[in-house]
From TrEMBL:
Residue positions of the active site: C110 (cysteine persulfide intermediate)
One GO term of the biological process aspect: tRNA wobble position uridine thiolation
Gene3D superfamilies noted in UniProt: 3.30.1420.10, DsrC-like protein, C-terminal domain
EC number from the UniProt entry: 1.8.99.3
Name of this protein: Sulfite reductase, dissimilatory-type gamma subunit
Family listed: Belongs to the DsrC/TusE family.
GO cellular component, one term: cytoplasm
Length: 111
């Protein structure tokens, strides 16, 4: 099982790099994972990450991109609820990359 070393602890990951134990997630770990990908998380990134964590807590599933866009548009309006905006923040795929930073499982429908 792959893992990352963070603050003296081994965090188990699945084969796609998603945290195995959701309780291992911290905002600092999200920042670290983003830095490993060459990203610095901004307030806009955190808006999406926190939205995803709330969504997961409510529905027990990580949303695929289509649902993420639709739900973001409902909550934040069309300027933030569109694929262009979300891909600008998470170029490796808004649902996939943002869910990884949010400590959630890989979204359904993502390859």
């Amino acid at each position: 099982m792959p893992y990352i070393e963070f603050k003296g602890k081994q965090i188990e990951l699945d084969e796609d790099g998603y945290i195995q134990n959701l309780d291992d997630w911290t905002p600092e770990l999200a920042e670290y994972m983003a830095q490993q990908d060459g990203l610095t998380l901004t307030e806009q990134h955190w808006e999406v990450i926190n939205f995803l964590r709330d969504y997961y807590q409510k529905y027990q599933i990580a949303p695929m991109i289509k649902i993420l866009v639709k739900e973001m548009a409902k909550m934040f309006g069309p300027d933030k609820g569109n694929t262009k905006y979300l891909y600008g923040l998470f170029p490796d795929g808004p649902a996939k990359q943002a869910c990884r930073y949010a400590g959630l499982p890989k979204p359904t429908g993502c390859v």
